[in-house]
């Protein structure tokens, strides 16, 4: 349903991407002192990742892996959706764990593992694609950078309030 809407309204995809990032920052800022809430948000944000990448889609066993690299444009729905998909889990995990390098590596590794599962288990009817891995990784990078900025901003503000 969401995919069809975005395909029909491709111009809204960049707006949706920005809204996802802003929602993460707002929720992260509000929950910045509540580690349990941040872990729950990180876990919940993985649900769409699993649902959209690993739940069987069709019974076609002739899925192939595409090796390509395309840069997203404002109208490239699938590429930008892949970016947006990985921003929330990377953001909330990096914010609560305070280990941006590890979260970056884990997020990129998770994306690679998803593509490997799609390649190795054709019964799930998913096609692996290097573009998906690249765009997911770009989403991880954005999420981690936003988390670092949020952490620094809140830490700076707390120091100013203490003075």
Q: N- to C-terminal separation?
A: 51 Å
Strand content: under 5%
How would you name the oligomeric state of the polypeptide chains in this document?
A: single chain
- Shape descriptor: elongated
Order of helices and strands: HHHHHH
Structure description:
By secondary structure, this protein is mainly alpha-helical. It has one domain (2-162). It contains six helices and no strands. It has helices at residues 2-8, 13-30, 35-53, 77-97, 100-120, 130-162. α4 (77-97) runs parallel beside α6 (130-162) and α5 (100-120) packs antiparallel against α6 (130-162).
Short description:
The chain has 163 residues and is mainly alpha-helical. It has helices spanning 2-8, 13-30, 35-53, 77-97, 100-120, 130-162.
Strand-helix topology:
Layout: H1 2-8, H2 13-30, H3 35-53, H4 77-97, H5 100-120, H6 130-162
Helix pairs in contact: 2-4, 2-6, 3-4, 4-5, 4-6, 5-6
List keywords for this structure.
163 residues, mainly alpha, 6 helices, elongated
